[in-house]
Write a structure and sequence with these properties.
The chain has 294 residues and is an alpha/beta fold. The chain has helices at 40-47, 74-82, 86-92, 97-110, 123-134, 159-166, 173-179, 194-208, 213-222, 228-232, 251-260, 281-291, and strands at 3-7, 10-17, 24-28, 52-56, 116-121, 139-145, 238-243, 265-269. It contains twelve helices and eight strands. Strands 1-2-4-3-5-6-7-8 form an eight-stranded mixed beta sheet, with helices on both faces. Helix 2 runs antiparallel to helix 3. It is globular and about 45 Å long.
Length: 294
Amino acid sequence: MPITDVSPGVSLAYDAFGAPSDPPVLLVMGFGAQLIAWDEDFCRALAERGRYVIRYDNRDCGLSTKFDDHPVDVARFIEAVSSGDLASALAMVPYTLQDMADDGLGLLTALGIERAHVVGSSMGGMIAQTMAVSSPARVRTLTSMMSSTGEPDYGRSGAEARSVLFAPKPSDREGYIAAADRELVWASKRYGDPAALRELAARSYDRAYYPAGVGRQLGAMILGGSRAGALRGLQVPTLVIHGLDDTLIDPSGGKRTAELVPGAKLRLIPDMGHDRPRELWNEIIDALAEHTGR
């Protein structure tokens, strides 16, 4: 798998599907998830629609650069944020959501791509929004999937989903894989598949087990702040996709995103949670193909 420098001190692992001569689509993954969470079959199906599909590991995840010199104690960080001690919280985190957005743009530059369609999922949606806000000339279209605006009143997690998100995962392979079943709490109620969750967990563990990175990614995400003002002025064609079963980022996050961005299209998908069930791929890929056909 190729790994390329995107800025001083940061290298990203990536792979691509389809013909480089086709319109590029950059897939941005979410919190703690490796590029393999964009299923290879999903990527190939989108590439077959005439797109050059690129997926990559965010910093502090997968095979990309790790920031081992900056350990973050998640419990202390959450305590600082909850108590309003933002100065202490900021001091714990070595990079920002903007830095993560710059990584994605840097990958495009390294690949010789001036402008791309950018699709972000969950935290990846926040990163993708930040790319579009900070560098609109580089983003042909934006798709924000199962994400939110950074405003605390929208896209809130349910109590059970929040508990699962912040619960430490077992460090042994067997326990790590078994713990994937917990994620059914935010999955599609109709199509949630524990076997698929365990299979992805096994592949993720074997490819790059790295729990230390999640604290730093979490810090960048939580301290990113509201993008509401910037989204109101965004002139990039935008599609918002959100599952109605999502309990990790409530659908109000997607609705609010579409409300703020001028001319944004909102697609609320029944039977989709904070996941992309294979049974819904055709609908999602149709929507992406239509939106990126510009």
